[in-house]
């Protein structure tokens, strides 16, 4: 009886070796219960481990070696009695606690980084954005008076084409700033694109030979393409100018402490995007 329950005796009826994945109990009425653990070790140190000195059962040892799930990093370890079981439970509990502490440390670091981003980086980004806006306005003012810094241009009068361009830009600026000006520009663009679409449809109809009666076709293909290109450029220019004006009006409203309704400049092109794509 003493040897049957002595963990150091080969006749101990409670010899246990555990697997990290599953347990297979080969116990019987007249045979001791035996099982194997597998410890995870560094692959470069696997060769340092061999058969434990207390592994007296040759068949059980060979079975443990044969059923090793990964011999490159697992080694069989024999645990005898409740004391070894308690040691392994305590070791696993300590390791789990260490993992929890590491997770808490990572969570603390993530929270600190998030707080730093919200308190420091976000405000720095806002200041950088405001500074960029100021620099943009300064550059625009410089470009506006750039002709005064160039001697060749400062002493010469405006050329006719430059004068015409200035007049056209002033008219566009006045048209856009006028109440409802964006809607009128959108209407004009719709009319122009509708005209180009009608010309394109008539051209396709003439090519397919569909319909009856008197038909007409575009003679100057290059001219039609040039018209479409000019319309596209004017449309893009008006959209850019509208965005600048809307932004300036927003900045002015912020300075004055009031709010003003804004029209979305991107909607200027939304009603004609499909027609333009089909035409081009």
From TrEMBL:
Family matches, as Pfam families: Nup54
Coiled-coil stretches noted in the UniProt entry, renumbered to this chain: 82-116
Domain Nucleoporin Nup54 alpha-helical: 52-195
A GO CC term attached to the entry: nuclear pore central transport channel
Biased composition (Polar residues): 268-280
GO biological process, alphabetically ordered: NLS-bearing protein import into nucleus; nuclear pore organization; protein localization to nuclear inner membrane
InterPro entries (UniProt xref): Nup54/Nup57/Nup44, Nup54_alpha-helical_dom
Compartments it resides in: Nucleus
UniProt GO MF annotations: structural constituent of nuclear pore
Chain positions covered by the region annotation Disordered: 257-280
Record-linked PANTHER family: NUCLEOPORIN P54
Name this polypeptide is given: Nucleoporin Nup54 alpha-helical domain-containing protein
Species whose genome carries this gene: Lentinus brumalis
């Amino acid at each position: 009886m003493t040897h049957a329950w002595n963990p150091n005796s080969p006749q101990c009826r409670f010899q246990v070796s555990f697997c990290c994945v599953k347990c297979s109990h080969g116990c019987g009425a007249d045979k001791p219960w035996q099982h194997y653990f597998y410890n995870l070790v560094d692959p470069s140190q696997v060769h340092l481990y061999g058969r434990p000195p207390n592994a007296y059962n040759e068949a059980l040892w060979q079975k443990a070696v044969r059923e090793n799930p990964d011999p490159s990093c697992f080694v069989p370890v024999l645990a005898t009695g409740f004391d070894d079981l308690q040691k392994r439970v305590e070791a696993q509990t300590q390791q789990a606690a260490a993992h929890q502490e590491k997770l808490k440390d990572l969570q603390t670091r993530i929270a600190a980084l998030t707080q730093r981003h919200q308190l420091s980086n976000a405000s720095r980004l806002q200041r950088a954005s405001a500074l960029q806006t100021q620099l943009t306005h300064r550059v625009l003012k410089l470009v506006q008076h750039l002709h005064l810094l160039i001697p060749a241009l400062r002493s010469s009068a405006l050329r006719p084409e430059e004068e015409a361009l200035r007049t056209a830009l002033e008219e566009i600026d006045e048209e856009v700033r006028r109440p409802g000006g964006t809607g009128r520009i959108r209407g004009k663009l719709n009319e122009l694109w509708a005209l180009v679409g009608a010309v394109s449809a008539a051209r396709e109809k003439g090519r397919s030979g569909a319909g009856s009666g008197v038909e007409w076709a575009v003679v100057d293909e290059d001219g039609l393409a040039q018209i479409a290109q000019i319309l596209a450029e004017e449309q893009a220019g008006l959209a850019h100018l509208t965005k600048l004006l809307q932004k300036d009006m927003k900045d002015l409203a912020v300075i004055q402490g009031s709010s003003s309704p804004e029209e979305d400049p991107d909607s200027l092109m939304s009603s004609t995007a499909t027609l333009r794509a089909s035409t081009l």
